[in-house]
């Protein structure tokens, strides 16, 4: 076999030049081999004949869709007549990534400082076709091995080849009419009036219920939506997932915002999920407060900061809030993550007195409620970001999990940063990365000691040098505590359950094996085997739109039909018609139309009687008369 090797090109035995990775990359490819498992009937093979390149690409694309990867058209070779005689179809992850050694040679790379990731990993998989004398194409080389895991079952829908809708999918969407069902995954509660018209509805699909099991410690009730044709109150039950994005656990439609309806909402919540949250965050709805106190007496109830702060401009005046420094000075104490209750109260009173607002009743009411919405009073409680806004929308957790198959770009390539890139979701990694960078350059350690199995570190705040934070680690119980309480508020739920215990077990193994290379090699071997086994369990997947896939998508089976009449038109706040002005009534309640003014000859809303140019002309005439 005749092979000429260069940095970026090789020539195979048939004299064809192809892209080739570096020697180090080839070694990496050999260590990570992934072979698709599928029906042999759909797998390409050598000397397989296709009438044209499009047919060949579609065949290879169907194979990739079944196995969990996407592909793209690559280079081709033509003869003197311009006819294609050689064509390559490659895995979409072929080629060097944006931050590999080969990509660093590109001058434009130095200017890329954004938080981006590259899916390319120099995957060797490809299908090579050669033209024959009958204007057809045959497979002369097929490499089925990849150097990366394939899309999981839940990630199949996000492959590029699955982003377009076939005729079957379009008809399925049009014909699908999912009724109220119950098969163990999809749960619902509803009530009707004496005429069988819907008055209350609470429902949760299988995916929402699964998410609640993991992320349901802190939830929010948001009854501010009115976007439905019956003007019913739409109340989603929302939390934050491990990507720091909103995730919807359940939804409800209520006839009105009464304490009776919200009580029914809470009782349905408990019946469907079977587990109470640790904290509920709402706006200042009095009816909702009564329902939560009756149904969840042991659950902490907090108010949404965003809703309260949003009212400031309405209560104090938009011009005052925009043009004065009042908001900037107040925000420093309201939104602070590290202020103590005393620091907040002193800061609030100072700002209120400075701007002469001591007699404002609404501000006094908000100050009296401070323990329900100011973070300084519950820094040690998990809020996971929901306290700052309950106005969140559902986010596709599956899509983010699929995107996490691609490693984010490290900055300084420290071991702790590389470990965090593998352990955390991409969104959480970027937050952790900022902490790692700050910890490596900004902080200043004042003291470090170990007493009775507890390691204590005193760190000076890089922003406020007069403040220090104390971190303690119990080496026996593995409990971690910091005086800033940030980990308690937002850190614990970013990991899956038991992740902390696993980490300390690993750390304990490393400590026990310290100094013994054989033990370290054994730990590394076992961990690598465990990781490969986990990856193997995620390889297989099915992209066919069969009954099982549909059920997985909607989280339920269609087993029976329940007929309920549509609800009555509700008349809740925020859904009434705007009061029509006298001017609008004079023209039938319709908006005024533009017309041509006979005075200025322009298409405008005024006419010749009130045209601005007429007033100017009259003034000029009057001035000339006196002159």
Automatic annotation (TrEMBL):
Limits of the FAR1 domain: 58-150
Organism: Heracleum sosnowskyi
Domain of life: Eukaryota
Designated name of the protein: Protein FAR1-RELATED SEQUENCE
Domain MULE transposase: 218-311
Lineage: Eukaryota, Viridiplantae, Streptophyta, Embryophyta, Tracheophyta
Stored InterPro entries: FAR1_DNA_bnd_dom (IPR004330), MULE_transposase_dom (IPR018289)
